[in-house]
Amino acid sequence: MDKSLKIGLFIPCYVNAVYPEVGIATYKLLKYFGLNIDYPMNQTCCGQPMANAGFEDKGLATIKKFGEIFKDYDYVVGPSASCVAFVKENHPQILAAHGHACQTEGKIYDVCEFLHDIVKPDNLPGEFPHKVSVHNSCHGVRELNLSSASELNIPMYSKIKDLLSLKKGIEIEEPERVDECCGFGGMFAVEEEAVSCAMGRDKLQNHMNTGAEYITGADSSCLMHMQGIARRDKLPVKFIHAVEILASGL
Amino acid sequence: MNSKEQILNNIRQHNLEQYDMPVIELDAIQFPDKINQFIEVSKAVGGNAVLLKEGEDINQLIAELYPDAKTIASNVPDINSTMDPDSVNNPRELNGVNLGIVEGAFGVAENGTVWIPQHVKERALYFIADSLVILLDKESLVDTMHEAYKRQQFNDYGFGVFISGPSKTADIEQALVKGAHGAKEVTVILK
Amino acid sequence: MNKNHVTAAEAFLSNKEGAQWHNETLWGTRVKRDNLAKGIPEWEELRELASKIKMHSITHLDHYLLQFAEAAEKNGATVHWAKDDTEHNDIVLEILRKNNAEKVVKSKSMLTEECHLDDFLIENGIDVIESDLGERILQLLKQPPSHIVMPAIHLKRQIIGELFEEKLNTEKGNSDPTYLTGCMRENLRKEFLSAKVAMTGANFGVAETGDIVVCTNEGNADMGTSQADIHIVSMGIEKVIPNRESLGVFTRLLARSATGQPITSYTSHYCKPRKGGELHIILVDNGRSDILGNKDHLQTLKCIRCGACMNTCPVYRRSGGYSYSYFIPGPIGINLGMLNAPQVYYTNLPACTLCFSCNNVCPVKIDLGNQIYKWRQGLDAIGKANPAKKVLSGGMSFLFNHPGLFHSALKMAPIVNKIPRSLKYNKFNEWGIGRELPEFAPESFTSWWKKNVKR
């Protein structure tokens, strides 16, 4: 990979506010690989929460801004499969409907995707001697192809597992119903609260049945939802974003 | 304007992007041993398929499989039966048939189904009998439904049915029960 | 009465045991589907072909309907055209009257549900006997189906046992499925043998040859039609396919997707009327031709009514068919309901996390999840947007368009962590009913960057 290429860090709104350590790990890891990284500070959000709730138009200004902020970078990389998928799948047609071009087309990546497909490391520093259960979030699987969707008859693969397996000492598990939705779904989590929590509790139980100490994945939103339930139910399982595992020890 | 014209006009008024018919050509699954596959799948779907052994008498085999059958209906030549199903005046008269013995045209290995173009006066026989024996030429098996629909025997029929195993339902708590309305047992004899 | 999915789902989930059984049983069907799909190396190719055949058929619908009608009429069938549900029902009644029939035996047809045929016929003095076991149970209970393929999935055997005790005089306290099914077999056989008219739906109508193809596991469609002199077929116009060769693709996909079996017990091909009998085929539009003009939602016409989307949908599995206000539930039901009457059925739109599992199991590759997303965008324009979500979105939009304000909010957010529990967790906090709130980090990423990296 050409290390002079400019990478713009995309730190989703809730990662910024609630899980900054995920952003920090992303930065440290990409820096470790000698990459040219910048964080344009006037970014805020990708527009997904508004759009999934049915208000694409309310997200339009944010979406346009997003393109302007990142237009001069060669890559846009962010630690959130869901947000990146939204930018990739939805920004082009939302912008086109209002007569704008999409400035991030072809260059936006989730950090796991970026590491696996572009950076292609063959080893990682440090160690993570723990058992983890991989949470395959819906948008990561079915929009970004981070792993093979369980519904499809295609060869099995998992970019997250491939990366995690480079970490010394790690034990990797996956839950039953390997890519069933955890029930976050953005505003679904509050609008359909009962179903959301039922889904979250089921998912959490499937993860815990693996005996893992940590639940990990590419989406802090899913982790945040399950963590909320785990804390309420006083369950000991811990949560960590995949990039934090990859960057541990740095 | 009658309804037919209204419907057709309503369809035609849309300026639709036209999509072409695809060529249906694919490398469909092939079974090295179609007979074995057919027998395995028949079992799996709750049916039964047996291979007539060299020199075995088919009537004897049927008698062994269904020793308790009293009313046996068949119009297949050289098959023992107690009644000719084509002799009835109406299909209701076939109620009470314990065993119907019918001929299949060909079978499909991927799903254990047999194509039966109507060869009897009343098609009710295929459904009303308590049990059904389907006679099938073992060389007639094809791998998949693609070949099934290509077969020459398929061309002209008033009624035909693919039968795969017995009648079944799982409508009560997903508990599988055989013999909901049609045959409780189906045996394909591959000869 | 307009059912609200949110509250109905909550009620469904309050029966923990029932909800768990429902979820696990339907997931089990999804797993059966997966196992069979993975046994066919060319599975994804089949889905692609099926999608293409359907897109071709629906974009040449007038041509194929005419070809179908001509072939069917040449076979001796009578083809009727019904522009809507009322006309369909009138045609059925007319055929019954003409033949002095006071009873009709029916096999399962979601189209006749759509047309409310049963109620109409009963009002007109016709005895209607549903013959599919699940549908018959629901008819006797006076309940609608909760799944399009497994209509009585929500019922426990005890309820059915008690029903049969009352209506069929079965043994008291016996709720064994084999026993109960056997009793219904006997009971319905009497009806089959005495019915002059039998009705079926149609899984496929073959344009080239005029075949009507009906797939059942029970054999009830055939029990009825092989006895009755008159066979009436109700077929939605979108069910027409070009030729028999196409059936090779669809018959390999349908049962595997619907119930996780390689094929249904019976795949019946009705071509010509029974000797001395009549075959009536009613082609029903009822809004389908209008859908052709809706580019965003055209693909719903590909649907072969297999129910796979329901089996995989994590929300349907945990809320049940009765939580949806349209008669067809789950992902396809949300979309069909909006096409039917958006002002009425918009209350089903929240029932989706946009996980896209439905897209992946659909044998004809309908973009179900994407369409739900699109319907949501259109809600505000028809005045049905959730006001709370609208305000929230507006607020977020404002915040995100002012980076300075956003950064201030980030700085102040950690204060929220310290707010007393009683103020944070109350009826205004939906998130907090079942979960703990996330904690805002003492230092946001932006602050960290400013402090540690920015030159």
From TrEMBL, chain B:
Q: Which residues form the LUD domain?
A: 89-190
**Do you know which PANTHER family this protein is assigned to?**
LACTATE UTILIZATION PROTEIN C
Q: What name does this protein carry?
A: L-lactate dehydrogenase complex protein LldG
| Record organism | Bacteroides luti
